[in-house]
Specification:
Blueprint lengths: L2 E4 L3 E4 L4 E5 L11 H9 L7 E7 L7 E7 L5 E6 H7 L21
Antiparallel strand pairs: 1-2, 3-4, 4-5, 5-6
Bound molecules: zinc ion.
Zinc ion binds next to loops.
Length: 109
């Protein structure tokens, strides 16, 4: 069992959260070459050690958080609101990468 400290709700069991992918991805600029978009969508690092991840606290506050987790020990090293990272990067001012995904119903993103 992992305990993830939500910045709003406190320490909670990891089963209350949904993994949302790598947290350090940088979205390509509009008009970037197709290869850059392909890499953004399909290529992921598989780091050994500390890794920044996005998790969604769907059973409580329903907010996204960034989690620094050690992939060898599963230790949760740090957590922070995902909004803080998005606000600090002009390239991500519209939100973290997970907001950019197209909805499953095929509607406009
Ligand atoms: Zn929460």
């Amino acid at each position: 069992m992992l305990l993830i400290r939500c910045p709003w709700c406190g320490a909670r069991d990891h089963t209350e959260f949904t993994y949302g992918g790598a947290g350090a991805l940088e979205r390509p600029a509009a008009g970037a070459p197709l290869a850059a978009w392909s890499d953004f969508v399909y290529l992921r690092d598989n780091p050994r050690g500390r890794h920044v991840e996005l998790w969604h606290h769907g059973t409580s506050c329903r907010r996204w958080i960034e989690v620094v987790r050690d992939t060898l020990t599963h230790e949760i090293v740090a957590t922070a609101p995902a909004e803080a990272r998005a606000a600090s990067s002009p390239d991500r001012a519209a939100g973290p990468a997970f907001h950019a995904r197209a909805p499953k119903d095929g509607g406009a993103p």
